[in-house]
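Before surveying the methods themselves, let us examine one representative protein, written as a sequence plus integers encoding its fold.
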Amino acid sequence: MGLIDLKTNLRTLKYGRDRAGGTSSNEPYIKKRLTTDYNYTPGSDDYLGIDSIGRQGTSLAAAEDVSRLTKFFNDGKSARGSLFTLKQKLLSLNGPQTPYGPTRGTFSNQNLILQAGASGTGIHYNSLGGLPESPFFTTYEFLTKQLYNGNGNRLSILYKNKILKQSPRELGIGGTTAALAFGIDLAINNNILTYGGGANSPVTTIKRATNTSNYIQGTGLYKNTFVLDSQAIGNKLRLTSTGLGNNLDPNSSISNFMLDVVNKSTPDGKRVLGRLTNYGVFNRVQKYGTGDQGNDANLDRQAYFSGAPVKTAGVDLINYNTLYSSNEVKTGQGYDDIIKFYIAVLNNDNPELKTYIHFRAYLKGLSDSFGASWDSFKYMGRGEDFYKYSGFSRGISLSFDILVGSRIELFPVYDKLNYLGSIMAPDYSKGGFMRGNIIQLTVGDYINNVYGVLDGINYSIPDDSSWDIARKDDGEIDENSAELPLLINVSSFNFKPIHNFVPSTVSSKSNPYNSGNSRFISLGDTGRGYGGEIAINGNARLNQQ
């Protein structure tokens, strides 16, 4: 039986008397009369409804929310309003310390009520207190520039307090006030920040991992630490350091000042600075011919597309150098790379000769897989398989990117790519017989001149690769260039080694590191890592275990 058919007149029921003993809880805070028209939607035809002040009765809803929240927080019969306020204050303490709002540990009931009333107006009140937000005087940028700029910012205070060891009194009123706002621990210790609250903690303390300052009070110097400040840059004879010496050669290059310090042979200089490399001599441009594209005084960029390409200091010499036939690999600038990488294709008519391919390759995805084959068989009366060893296999795969950095590198790079792809096709003897191509692969000292066959290769052009459009400045066709991509990815480079030793398990019982007879990993041309003191000591450590 539906409620509407009950004998009791439900519309005559009153709110209240909803607690034990017949007392009232004052809830609900907003009370409305029931309607007799069950198809009627409240607010659909009143002046605060559709398309009046606010959409779909927004103003009416906001007014009801203000009334409801006001009664909730001022309800003398329930502690829920007070508990809600306390919980919000405790939650705000979970946030990190900031030098400007919102204030942690506070909550404003009044601002929450104001925000409910301003719903849909674009006005925003800070529930943790304060005035409505202003795009002017409460923004991060404004407060940083106006209140905590100059000597009052956090880094300045930390430097003075933790490095210069200044006390709060020496920091001054402004510095101390700002420090407290930031939560900076002004005690002379290794604590950076200390403040009440924080995530899951009644007190948050942030320490520095190590004390790196070692500052000598009143000297402007740092113990056992080399510092090149603005004064030292202006005057190379002055270095803010102790124990390192400060009488440097005034004619020395400021870029190599650390070498000058080490050359003094002072214990502190060697200990603090360690081994140093003179990058003026040993660098990618000088040793590996990568080209200095961003610092080429000889490159006339206005005439870049005029006439034939010209080799300048910005050219990558490995890309620029072409294929060559020789009985040994060339070395030196234009052939050496940070990690050796080249391919040698044997001449089928004269295996003493090889055609060498050098790429300035950006290697990735190097994989070396070893496999064993086992034939299964069964014995009569046994359900499981038994196995007989039948063979060994190995496969090496890798991929690399090739980047054409200048106009003069374009044709040499594509000439080498064309040749590399061609070795997948057969070579024919004078008698017309089809022959495959054997190569030697070198990748660092992991694979050194290892014979094998290449059974797959793939060229792909990344979507973000730029293209040379082969046009001069006036739009005419550039005969010295071509419409080609400048970034090429070489993948599916599948290499099957043909070892110059009989693959076998390393079996030297006296020295398991002595793997000279099974050098699957080359460790250089001579396998120098498989013998000598390193291997012997390694074996000794192995035996101790």
